[in-house]
Specification:
By secondary structure, this protein is α+β, with helices and mostly antiparallel strands. Helix content is about 35%, strand content about 25%. Strands 1-3-4-5-2 form a five-stranded mixed beta sheet. A hairpin with a 5-residue loop joins β3 and β4.
């Protein structure tokens, strides 16, 4: 099914007014294979309701920050539409100030320490590739979303 067909199906089944719900694009996970599949499963089950991205990545890639109310089609590793999420909140927080209450919403880790260790490794790798330094005081974009269609 194409993205357009999936969007039209969502609008018809949810009885949404196309003039009131804007399509913001596709969302997929950078990590492919098993890890990407696990993250997708967490989103589709409703267990994962947040994603974190280094703030500097947006500036380097000249991408606008996400905005509350944006709606994205979630794709699997093959580019097939699997669900639709709506962004409900966006905040920019220093990495070291992210709470367990927020971090646990990723649905993967058992403690804040475990989450920080994994996220720090990921953010440091991204920073090295993009040419910036990542520290505990680096700003992180926290994007909270909800699954609205599957």
């Amino acid at each position: 099914m194409t993205i357009g067909e999936y969007w039209d199906k969502f609008l018809a089944e949810s009885k949404q007014n196309p003039d009131e719900v804007g399509f913001s694009g596709e969302l997929s996970f950078a990590e492919r294979g098993i890890v990407g599949n696990e993250q997708l499963a967490l989103v589709l089950s409703g267990k994962r309701t947040v994603t974190f991205t280094a703030f500097d990545s947006y500036a380097i890639n000249r991408e606008p920050l996400p905005v509350s109310g944006e709606v994205f089609i979630v794709e699997d590793k093959d580019g097939e539409p699997r669900g639709i999420v709506e962004v409900t909140d966006v905040s920019v927080i220093p990495f070291g100030e992210i709470t367990w209450e927020l971090a646990r919403r990723e649905g993967e880790d058992e403690s804040l320490e475990e989450w920080r260790e994994k996220q720090r490794d990921y953010m440091e790798d991204e920073a090295a590739l993009c040419g910036f330094e990542f520290t505990d005081s680096s700003k992180v974009v926290c994007e909270v979303f909800r699954l609205i269609y599957r």
